[in-house]
Amino acid sequence: xxxxxxxxxxxxxxxxxxxxxxxxxxxxxxxxxxxxxxxxxxxxxxxxxxxxxxxxxxxxxxxxxxxxxxxxxxxxxxxxxxxxxxxxxxxxxxxxxxxxxxxxxxxxxxxxxxxxxxxxxxxxxxxxxxxxxxxxxxxxxxx
Length: 143
Ligand SMILES: [Zn+2]
Prior knowledge:
Blueprint: H1 7-18, H2 28-35, H3 44-53, H4 56-61, E1 85-90, E2 101-107, E3 113-118, H5 124-138
Antiparallel strand pairs: 1-2, 2-3
Helix pairs in contact: 1-3, 2-3
The chain binds zinc ion.
The site of zinc ion (ZN) has 5 residues, from helix 4.
């Protein structure tokens, strides 16, 4: 429903949505989403934003409306070495023999770490090749 240029009416609409229990002090985006389900006028987002900025409780609740992150869980401890690895790249190194990056492969069980010199632009195939060519050095067998 288009709301004509009647400031009191627009504020009343915002106020009604602001005080609905489910979104009470829900912040700018939730309020705008709720108001624009049934009403619209030029600058509705701006007006809702102004209203929310003027509400002390909305400002206090600002970051609390997001879902609480889940609890951290410990990773399962591997039973055999080299079955679970972590890999990362150390980049932006000086170019030596055409290599400027180090692939760091770490065995999660023993923490034994293996380093492979490579280049920054390595693609998935290149990474697979590095594993294939260096697998026996890292202590795991190709299946
Ligand atoms: Zn509020």
